[in-house]
Design brief:
alpha/beta, Rossmann fold, 2 domains, 3-stranded parallel β-sheet, 10 helices
Length: about 290
């Protein structure tokens, strides 16, 4: 029987744990954790994601502030806003929602964030510490995947893990986390990408497959060996004739792959909610450092 890795229910439980901890700190007279976000432009997916983060903050008792800027904001003005947030000791986390308009250098913006409040885990210092297995903020999606694996008790030690996709946000950190010492970890990792020949040769040998390529239904049933664990990071809006006019589809051909797996994440309701939890976890971590807790 295939285990459905229900990220939605798990994230709800874990958010409840954060809310209880925040309530306990507030009873002691401490301020609430504060997550700030910067949203540039009118990208629909970005607006939806930031709105969800606001709701998550409200649920767990965080203070949230969103700076909504026009798409033609200058890079200099955006950098000045980041500097002012960096200097605000009452802000524990700062995220700049990506993608940014083409006239803004996303790398320059990411590097301008104080690493102490880089709860997205995108800063070079955060990534460097992750590579050296030092304490740091792990990017929310890889963190969410690791937490999902941990909470469901999926064995990783000595397993072969294939990661498809090599982005700096998901694929690369995911390969590091799955190969590091500890649990989850201790995997032999193969990192595949668009130039990998015969990807199915690798995926058929994998005990764990993590897919993050942004191609709907990329991983087919005949690409997975029986009993594998499949983690689907992708989510794409595909036009349909239903009432909404679209459906959300992952990078895994869910119906075809499910029968092959020992465990699989659904889309939606799998990795997505755990990503949002990861951001809350990192913000609380920053807050506790500042408060000396």
């Amino acid at each position: 029987m295939t285990t459905i890795l229900d990220g939605k229910s798990l994230a709800l439980k874990l958010r409840g744990d954060i809310r209880a901890e925040v309530d306990a700190h507030r009873v002691k007279g401490l301020r609430a954790p504060h997550l700030a976000a910067i949203l540039v432009g009118d990208d629909g997916a970005s607006k939806t994601y930031v709105n969800s983060k606001e709701k998550d903050c409200e649920y767990v008792g965080f203070h949230s502030s969103v700076h909504r800027l026009k798409s033609d904001v200058s890079e200099a003005d955006l950098l000045e806003l980041i500097r002012s947030i960096n200097d605000n000791s009452d802000i524990d986390g700062l995220i700049v929602q990506l993608p940014l308009p083409k006239h803004i250098d996303a790398t320059k913006i990411t590097e301008a964030i104080n690493p102490e409040i880089d709860v997205d885990g995108f800063h070079t210092i955060s990534v460097g510490k992750l590579t050296k297995n030092e304490d740091t903020y792990i990017s929310a999606t890889p963190f969410g995947v690791i937490k999902l694996i941990e909470e469901y008790g999926i064995e990783t030690k000595g397993k072969h893990c294939v990661v498809i996709g090599r982005s700096n946000i998901v694929g690369r950190p995911m390969s590091i986390l799955m190969s590091r010492g500890g649990n989850p970890g201790e995997c032999t990792v193969t990192l595949c990408h668009r130039y990998t020949k015969n990807i199915s040769v690798h995926t058929k040998m994998a005990d764990i497959v993590i897919v993050a390529v942004g191609i709907p239904k990329f991983l087919k049933g005949d690409m997975v060996k029986p009993g594998a664990v499949v983690i689907d990071v992708g989510i794409t809006r595909v036009e349909t004739n239903n009432d909404k006019g679209y459906e959300l589809v992952g990078d895994v051909d869910y119906d075809a792959v499910k029968s092959q797996c020992s465990a699989i994440t659904p889309v939606p309701g799998g990795v997505g909610p755990m990503t949002r939890y990861g951001l809350l976890f990192n913000t609380l971590k920053s807050y506790k450092k500042k408060q000396g807790l």
